[in-house]
Amino acid sequence: MDINQLVRKNVQQLTPYQSARRIGGNGDVWLNANEYPIAPHFELTQQTLNRYPEPQPEQVLDRYAQYAGVMSEQLIVSRGADEAIELLMRAFCEPQQDSILYCPPTYGMYQVSAETLGIKTKTVPTNAQWQLDLEGIKNNLDTVKLIYVCSPNNPTGNLINPEDIKTLLTMAKDQALVVIDEAYIEFSPQASVVTWLANYPHLVILRTLSKAFALAGLRCGFTIANKPVIDALQKVIAPYPLAVPVADIAAQALSKEGINNMKLHVLNMNNQKQKFAAALAQLPIVEQVYPSASNYLCVKFQDGKDVFNRLWNQGIILRDQSKSTGINNMTRITIGTQAECEAVISALSAIN
Ligand code: PMP
Question: Is the pTM of this model over 0.70?
Answer without folding.
Answer: yes
